[in-house]
Amino acid sequence: MVLLKFLLSNFYVFICIPCFSQQVGDSLFAARKNGVVIYSKPDFHSNQVGILSFNSKILIKEILQLDTNDLRIGHWYKIKSSSGGRGFSFGGYFNMSRITSDLTSLENAIQSIESQYPILFSTSYGKPQSEI
C-alpha cells in the first residue's frame, strides 16, 4: 500500500500537475463530499467565509501558490462560485468535471490502475516463481 501511495503521488506531481494545470477562467467542480471551504486568504488558518457544496461549480479568477493538504497537492485559487461567493480555495479538492457517482468513479480509477500496474495488486509480488 505504501508503494502504491508513493507511485500515485509521484505520478500526480510529475505527470498530472504539468499536464493538467488549470488556467485563469477555467471552471472546476467541488469534489469533496463534505464541501470545499472558501477562505478569506489563501491559507488554511485564515477565516472561513463559506463552503462550496459537493459538485458546486467555481470559476478560477487567479492561480496562486502550490500547497499540500491531506496528502493532496494543488494550487490555491482565487475563485468565484456559481452562487456569487468569492474567496480562496485549495485546488486539491476540485475536479475538471462533475462527479456523477463516487463509487463508480472510485471503482473505475482502481480498475484502471490495476490494469495498468498489475504487479502492484498481485498476491505473488516478491515471492519466488517456484512458490506461485
Layout of helices and strands, plus pairs?
Blueprint lengths: L1 H18 L7 E4 L5 E4 L8 E5 L4 E13 L2 E10 L4 E5 L3 E2 L6 H15 L16
Antiparallel strand pairs: 1-4, 1-7, 2-3, 4-5, 5-6
Percent of residues in helices comes to 25-40%
Euclidean distance between termini CA atoms: 21 Å
> Structural class of the secondary elements?
alpha+beta
Write down how many β-strands occur, each being a DSSP E stretch of 2 or more residues.
7
Please compute the radius of gyration using only Cα atoms: 18 Å
Count of helical stretches = 2
Instruction: List unreliable stretches of 5+ residues.
Output: none
Task: Describe the main β-sheet briefly.
Answer: 5 strands, antiparallel
Question: Can you write the helix and strand succession as a string?
Answer: HEEEEEEEH
Overall shape: it is: elongated
State mean pLDDT (0 to 100 scale). 80
Name the strands of the widest sheet in spatial order.
6-5-4-1-7
Estimate what percentage of residues fall within beta strands.
25-35%
